[in-house]
Specification:
Length: 119
């Protein structure tokens, strides 16, 4: 299976088209919110994992999945989706490696999205 692109250019263009002519202000705002919010959701994942709180863990993964999908962060969405489905089907006992992978992918995604923050 081919590896997904980190960022879907079509999703970025779709966001740009929502507010054309604004010199990417809307896009930068959405990216900024994503970069600010996602670490909080990752912290919720870690807290849910440590407390063995499967519902909270799954909610955090679901939130990351949705926001990643909206922004076109395809790899991050794929990992969050795997974490969410895995937690609902098998519990969270084996999720430590997936959470670590998600954190690494978020760092790489953030670096890629950071390129769009420059006016």
């Amino acid at each position: 299976m081919a590896e997904l692109p980190r960022i879907d250019p079509e999703a970025i263009e779709n966001l740009r088209s929502l507010n054309p002519g604004d010199n990417d202000e809307f896009l930068r705002e959405i990216i900024g919110i994503f970069l600010e919010d996602t670490p909080q959701r990752i912290a919720e994942l870690e807290t849910g994992l440590a407390a063995a709180d499967t519902p909270a863990f799954a909610r955090a993964a679901h939130s990351i999945k949705g926001s990643s999908a909206n922004l076109g962060a395809l790899r991050l969405k794929q990992i969050a989706e795997k974490i969410e489905h895995g937690s609902r089907q098998d519990g969270i006992g084996s999720a430590v490696a997936d959470v670590a992978l998600l954190k690494t992918e978020f760092a790489a995604t953030g670096a890629e999205l950071g390129k769009f923050l420059k006016p």
